[in-house]
Amino acid sequence: MYIITKEFHFSASHHLPSLPDEHPCKRVHGHNYIVIVELQSEELNEHGFVREFAELNQLRDYIDEKFDHRLLNDVVGDNMVSSECLAKHFYDWCAALWPETSAVKIIETPKLTAEYRPRK
After folding, report:
1. What is the total count of domains within the chain?
2. Is the predicted pLDDT of residue 96 greater than 90, yes or no?
3. pLDDT value of residue 86
4. What span, in angstroms and rounded, lies between the C-alpha atoms of 68 and 39?
5. Which of 1, 72, 95, 102 could form a disulfide with 81 if both were Cys (CB 3.0 to 4.6 A apart)?
6. DSSP characters over 48-101
7. What is the pLDDT of the chain when averaged over all its residues?
8. Nearest CA to 113 among 38, 24, 61, 36?
9. Is 80 left (phi over 0), alpha (psi -120 to 50) or beta?
10. pTM for the whole thing?
11. Which domain holds residue 80?
């Protein structure tokens, strides 16, 4: 199995309105996110690639246009702003373009990550 990854960075804010009032994440706060997309394939294409890395820059463009320096609640909705939900959102977006997409990881802080990887 061949596996490639590429990472992208963006800064954004969010809040989790369904949490109790005393929870710090109920308040608007921000992160410097890292999105890591993973693609895998049993076979390489005619150029020796799983997928040309430059093609994955479409994800960078999407992130820059829709997510960077935004309030994520306004972009994906109040109930979809956890790192877990963001990982699923980016997975779905990537898988629609690249069928080899196998997982997306969101790094919210150096100590907190979430990953979406569908069951096979």
Report:
1. 1
2. yes
3. 97
4. 23
5. 72
6. S-SS-GGGGHHHHHHHHHHTTTSBHHHHH-GGG-SHHHHHHHHHHHHHHH-TTE
7. 96
8. 36
9. alpha
10. 0.94
11. 2-116
Burial class, 16, CB count within 10 angstroms (exposed 0-12 / middle 13-18 / buried 19+) = middle
Indicate which residues carry an active-site annotation.
Answer: 25, 69, 108
CA distances (Å), origin 74, targets 13, 66, 69, 91 = 10, 10, 12, 19
In whole angstroms, what is the distance from residue 67 CA to residue 76 CA?
A: 9
- 82 neighbors 114 (Cβ within 8 angstroms): yes
Q: Tell me the per-residue pLDDT of 44-87, one tens digit each, with 9 for 90 and over.
A: 999 999 999 999 999 999 999 999 999 999 999 888 899 999 99
Instruction: Using alpha carbons, select from 7, 9, 3, 64 the residue that is nearest to residue 36.
Output: 7
* Three-state DSSP class for residue 118: coil
